[in-house]
Specification:
The complex is a heterotrimer. In chain B, 26% of the residues lie in helices and 38% in strands. By secondary structure, chain B is α+β, with helices and mostly antiparallel strands. Chain B folds into 2 domains: 231 residues, 3-Layer(aba) Sandwich (Rossmann fold); 112 residues, Beta Barrel (OB fold (Dihydrolipoamide Acetyltransferase, E2P)). Chain B starts with a strand and ends with a strand. By secondary structure, chain C is mainly alpha-helical. Helix content of chain C is 76%, strand content 0%. Chain C is built from 14 helices and no strands. The two termini of chain C are 14 Å apart.
Chain lengths: 262, 349, 267
């Protein structure tokens, strides 16, 4: 029982990662007014890696529609997918991988087929100054270095595993982290010499972390699909948000955050 | 082996300042009302409480000297018996009695043997394997006595050792304690608020009130010539301070008493309630000590009724239940109180 | 010490008690009902499960022993000594109770991590690195669980009659002997209760462990970590693992209670 409580607390904690409001509170009175202005509440479930970009885009949308309130639930894609299949009310779902989007579409929760709006590639994150003198993916086979990967159960870990398999490298990690942020924290603290994370995470981590890109990453490009949900309380606003994400302005914001746009 | 102590303690409302000496083989009873500082005094003598001043010397060795010397309790040669025995509940009775020997380095087997021997001396042979919780109150207190005495201490401290016992048990344990104290070679200090314990067990009594020694003497002296109301009440006397002039004493509170002996200057007059007679009419004839009074309160006291009188001379009279009924007294009723001069004790203040 | 006079629980106590029990038990029931019983055999047969379970039991037990060795003396200092600033000390000791465990993990990094205040010289001169080892698991669990023990034992010490210690002193026992022979046996039930609480907390520890010790099967992946990661991939597997952990911990506690603590113990 204690374990469940811990889990619940962690879910709440991770949901509070950005400026996110908590899920499922908005009884959104939805719609557009006669002038085409959006009103009500828009609830977006988005992968944690989108926290900064989507936060900015949400602000933009609110600025254009002063009577619209955009609230986010940022968390791991699988946690979000679970919440959605458990009936959490939301307008938009943006996943950090196809797999968790499939969980949602298999449940028939989408209003329309998802579209891939951006991609993310792996990078090697090292502490500022690169004390372990890491140069490329091959260094992850060096048992003398202290290395962090994501657990294979989470997307960045699965991607890392695939990259190592492609490159024929046997990785020797010291820890398999529960998510990207945890891996990055250890890089920031200088407790590991390198971690394999996404380019966007390196960008978001700031000056304490340096990113090293490597050619093998191209083998495992991570697609981000987005869709409006069938049960969306505010479908107009949902569509507007999706349009904004896929617009030029959206692309620019994503690129600035380290994403690549297809 | 003697105990010589001057103890000063300031604790909130308590200002204790007491001098006492206890000779080798002597039992000193410290008698006083609750809150007089008796237990505090005992804790200081034991080394459990550092006093604020003074000096404690045992057999010439200073164990406390105004903070310069301090021998902690566990390094002193003492035994202590507490009111509620404080036998360790997790140890057997034998282990309890052997405890003091074990801490002083005696090996297990000889310590057990000595403990068993002492248990036999306090009539607890065969009960050594029990836990303290399985003993009666009297048995537990006897075991506690054995535990204190088994190490043959130089100083024995007894903190109200009988007051937690019921009346019957108290009688037998008191008798036994008396025997062991008589055999005890070191100095013993007994703290009690019960004069019977003090009178029965002690060679000398020190009365402490409000942190000061107000009277000291043999039990007989204290019982015969109390110097404070508290002691007088304990020993069943009414104490009246006054000034003597020949065979009369002018009381400080007013009134004149004829006394059995000669007295001059400040004196105490002590009257036994049983020697005070009550009359509805002023008695005719010889008694010189006759005062009008009113009955303030009447309480049954064994076979007599204790009558507190209000009047010029505040006396207490013990009358038999039969007399009380015959007089038909009710509170507030006017009476005449009379006492023979020969029954009035007088001694200097 | 059996208590008599069952029956007649006052309604104002009975109703909330039943609600509370339902609140505590229903989630457990949910786990049991939703567990994929048909596939439970293969799930349990996975090597990682046994590994994680063994590591959990081992590290929680070592953390409890360490907590006893350090925590009982702390409790004694808090309950019995007259040193200044005890209330501040007590507040500091209980900080891990209110600190989010993840923050606790980061804090451990800052002190005994490879770049930590103490950890750095340790690493640079002796080549010793604590994070990502089983030792780190034990340290993280001890950090989080020890306050439970300290609080239990301090409470027991305060409730115990200190005059027994006076009696011991008059019988020639110095403070250490008094502690060993009198105080500790008197508060043994409280110590046992605290140890059980501490062990349970250590067994369930997640946040500080995954932060400071990381997650690697066999060395640092305890059951809670395995459960959490399984939840990312396969919620059914997570339920199975949770049930295993629950069964083992409940079984251990019941066994301990009967074997060691006796019926009078406060567990």
């Amino acid at each position: 029982m204690k374990r469940l409580l811990t889990l619940a607390v962690l879910l709440v904690l991770s949901a509070c990662g950005g400026t996110a409001a908590d899920a499922g509170t908005g009884s959104s009175s939805a719609g557009t007014s006669s002038g085409g202005e959006l009103t009500g509440t828009l609830t977006v479930f988005a992968a944690a890696s989108l926290t900064d970009v989507f936060g900015d885009l949400g602000d933009q949308l609110e600025k254009q529609n002063p009577r619209l309130h955009v609230q986010f639930n940022f968390a791991g894609s699988s946690a979000l997918a679970t919440q959605l299949t458990q009936g959490a009310p939301a307008d938009v779902f943006a996943s950090a991988n196809e797999k968790q989007m499939t969980v949602v579409t298999d449940a028939g929760l989408q209003a329309a087929d998802p579209t891939v709006f951006t991609e993310n590639v792996l990078e090697i994150a090292v502490p500022a100054g690169n004390p372990g003198k890491v140069t490329g993916l091959a260094d992850f086979g060096d048992a003398d270095l202290t290395l962090a990967l994501c657990a294979t159960d989470v997307p960045c870990g699965a991607a890392a595993q695939a990259v190592f398999a492609d490159a024929g490298i046997t990785a020797k990690p010291d820890t398999e982290e529960e998510d990207v942020k945890a891996a990055l924290t250890k890089v920031q603290l200088g407790e590991v010499d390198a971690a394999l994370v996404y380019a966007t995470d390196v960008r978001a981590a700031g000056s304490g972390v340096e990113g090293i890109s490597f050619p093998e990453a191209e083998q495992e490009v991570n697609d981000y699909p987005i869709c409006v949900l069938a049960a969306a309380p505010n479908p107009d606003a949902a569509q507007a948000f999706l349009d904004l994400v896929t617009s030029d302005a959206g692309r620019r914001a994503l690129t600035a955050a380290g994403f690549r746009t297809p | 082996m003697t105990l010589a102590a001057h103890v000063v303690v300031q604790r909130g409302a308590l200002h204790l300042d007491v001098d006492l000496t206890v000779a080798d083989g002597e039992v000193l009873a410290v008698l006083g009302p609750n809150g007089a500082g008796k237990s505090t005094l005992l804790r200081v003598l034991a080394g459990l409480l550092p006093p604020d001043g003074g000096r404690v010397a045992l057999d010439g060795d200073t164990v406390w000297d105004d903070g310069r010397d301090h021998v902690p309790a566990h390094e002193r040669s003492l035994g202590m018996v507490f009111q509620d025995h404080l036998l360790f509940p997790h140890l057997s009775v034998t282990e309890n009695v052997a405890f003091g020997l074990r801490t002083r380095g005696v090996r297990r087997a000889p310590a057990r043997a000595a403990a068993e021997e002492w248990l036999a001396r306090v009539h607890l042979a065969g009960l050594g394997d029990r836990r303290p919780g399985e003993l009666s109150g009297g048995q537990a207190q006897r075991a506690a006595l054995a535990r204190a005495l088994v190490v043959d201490p130089r100083l024995l401290l007894l903190d109200e050792p009988l007051s937690a016992l019921d009346a019957r048990t108290r009688l037998t344990v008191r008798a036994e304690l008396r025997r062991h104290l008589a055999e005890f070679a070191g100095s013993a200090v007994l703290v009690s608020h019960d004069p019977v314990d003090a009178m029965a067990l002690a060679d000398r009594v020190v009365v402490v009130e409000d942190g000061r020694v107000v009277q000291t003497g043999t039990p007989a002296e204290v019982a015969r010539r109390p110097r404070t109301d508290y002691v007088a009440r304990l020993v069943g006397l009414v104490l009246l301070p006054g000034t003597g002039a020949g065979t009369t004493v002018r009381l400080d509170g007013g009134g004149v008493v004829s006394v059995g002996g000669e007295a001059t200057g400040p004196v105490f007059v002590a009257v036994r309630p049983a020697s005070v007679s009550l009359y509805l009419e002023r008695p005719a004839g010889s008694p010189r000590n006759v005062w009008p009074a009113r009955l303030a309160a009447a309480t049954p006291h064994g076979s007599v009724v204790r009558c507190d009188l209000a009047g010029e001379v505040p006396l207490t009279a013990d009358v038999t239940a039969t007399s009380f009924a015959e007089l038909g007294l009710v509170p507030g009723a006017p009476v005449w109180a009379s006492v023979k001069a020969a029954d009035v004790t007088v001694y200097t203040r | 010490m059996s208590r008599r006079g069952e029956g007649g629980v006052p309604v104002p106590l009975l109703v909330p008690a039943l609600l509370g029990i339902a609140f505590l038990v229903l989630p457990l029931l949910g786990l049991v009902i939703r567990a994929p019983w048909s596939s439970i055999g293969p799930q349990l047969a996975q090597q990682e499960v046994g590994q994680a379970l063994r590591l959990s039991l081992f590290s929680a037990t070592v953390a409890t022993v360490v907590s006893l060795l350090l925590g009982v003396p702390i409790a004694w200092v808090l309950a019995r000594s007259r040193i200044r600033g005890r209330s501040v000390l007590r507040a500091l000791v209980t900080v891990p109770l209110v600190l989010p465990p993840v923050v606790g993990g980061v804090a451990l990094f800052l002190v005994i991590g490879r770049q930590g205040i103490l950890g750095r010289p340790l690493y640079e001169h002796l080549g010793v690195s604590i994070p990502f080892t089983t030792t780190a698991v034990v340290i993280a669990e001890t950090f989080v669980a020890m306050p439970f023990l300290v609080i239990s034992v301090e409470g027991a010490l305060r409730a115990a009659d200190a005059r027994f210690e006076d009696a011991a002193a008059t019988l020639g026992a110095d403070r250490w002997t008094t502690f060993r022979r009198v105080t500790l046996p008197l508060v043994a039930p409280g110590v046992a209760a605290g140890a059980v609480l501490c062990w349970a907390r250590a067994l369930g520890e997640f946040g500080a462990t995954i932060t400071f010790a990381g997650n690697f099967p066999g060395t640092t992946q305890t059951m809670p970590l395995a459960v959490y990661l399984a939840l990312q991939r396969d919620p059914e597997a997570a339920i199975v693992l949770s049930l295993v952990l629950l069964a083992v911990s409940l079984g251990t506690l019941l066994l301990l209670r009967d074997r060691w603590l006796g019926r009078s113990a406060v567990v």
